[in-house]
Amino acid sequence: MERQKVDISKFKKVELIKKLFREDVPEGVIVRPNPKDYNHYHSYGGLSPFFEGLTKGKLLGTECQNCRNTGLWLPPRVDCPDCWEKTEWRDVDTKDAKVYTYSVTNYPGAGFKATVPCPLISLEIPGVCTKFMSYLSEFGEGEPYIGMPVKPKFRIRKPTYTILDISWVPTS
Ligand SMILES: [Zn+2]
User: Residue ranges of the domains in the chain?
Assistant: First the structure.
């Protein structure tokens, strides 16, 4: 059977094709769009209360009753990483939250969901045994800096049910 010849110049998206392949497509080579449109459904499992909380302006961590005094896990752990017991949900008090360290993204890779420049911050929150990672959605000249007091800001309207539903802003 003779190979069917396709004149790709007839494609409406020929410029896009050139861009994607970064060179002219040789004559006789077939290029066809293959559209895909599907939803991937997945469960948030035991972490559902955390993401539900963000949509209501609440930051929840977990605590192990067996290993008390270690502090809250944030992001939460459904099971204690130390003793494997089920943990319990607790409100995180963010009153004295501050920037522990940071880096600023100016040139993001593909799929980056925030605007740039975007300060990615690691937070120190009293009573929390982890350094919660997030981003600063409002900042001024010379910000962020290490030790900067911050407070959470929640995406309550049109939540994404992702970790991007929480960001941080300066307290003052
Ligand atoms: Zn434990």
Answer: 45-170
